[in-house]
């Protein structure tokens, strides 16, 4: 009987792994390398992506801050407020301004002798201090949002506005 050929292990070469286990080992190493590359790519791209997403917000915030510093207020200055008409409130004056007996800003009633302002454009009545604090921030009426004009500017604007209204009324009647 003949014996199968024996491989000699004394030749100095390492023992050979079966081909299936060798493929599994290479596949496992390849998967590990791919996972490492994906993780590195993720951690390199994540800061770049977040920077690109947050950049428009940062730029918008900077522009807003620059606009706010270049135009600190869109309201009237204290010199302009002094040009607005003011009067002391008396019960007889209430008949002229019969719309309301309270200030729409502070919701407090008008008392005898209090300083008040009656807006030229719309005719709404307010306490002077309340309206002045409002007009420093915004140049429109707190109730109807009509633009507040200084007394000399108001007449020309109101005159042209009343002409427009009558012309518009004429169109409606046609």
TrEMBL record:
Keyword Zinc recorded: yes
Top enzyme class: transferase
EC code: 2.3.2.27
Keyword annotations: Membrane, Metal-binding, Transmembrane, Transmembrane helix, Zinc, Zinc-finger
Domain RING-type: 103-145
Annotated Low complexity bias: 1-14
Membrane-spanning ranges: 28-59
Keyword Zinc-finger in record: yes
Tree of life domain: Eukaryota
PANTHER family reported in the protein's UniProt record: E3 UBIQUITIN-PROTEIN LIGASE ATL42, RING-H2 FINGER PROTEIN ATL56
Similarity annotation: Belongs to the RING-type zinc finger family. ATL subfamily.
Name this protein carries in UniProt: RING-type E3 ubiquitin transferase
Lineage of the organism: Eukaryota, Viridiplantae, Streptophyta, Embryophyta, Tracheophyta
């Amino acid at each position: 009987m003949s014996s199968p050929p024996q491989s000699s292990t004394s030749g100095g070469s390492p023992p050979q792994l079966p081909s299936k286990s060798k493929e599994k080992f290479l596949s496992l190493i390849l998967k590990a390398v791919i996972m490492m590359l994906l993780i590195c790519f993720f951690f390199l791209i994540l800061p770049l992506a977040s920077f690109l997403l947050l950049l428009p917000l940062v730029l918008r915030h900077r522009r807003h801050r620059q606009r706010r510093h270049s135009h600190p207020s869109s309201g009237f200055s204290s010199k302009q407020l002094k040009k607005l008409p003011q009067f002391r409130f008396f019960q007889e004056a209430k008949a002229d301004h019969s719309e309301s007996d309270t200030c729409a800003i502070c919701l407090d009633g008008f008392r005898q002798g209090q300083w008040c302002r009656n807006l030229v454009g719309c005719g709404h009545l307010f306490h002077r201090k309340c309206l002045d604090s409002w007009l420093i921030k915004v140049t429109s009426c707190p109730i109807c949002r009509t633009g507040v004009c200084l007394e000399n500017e108001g007449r020309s604007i109101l005159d042209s506005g009343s002409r427009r209204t009558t012309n518009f009324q004429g169109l409606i009647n046609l």
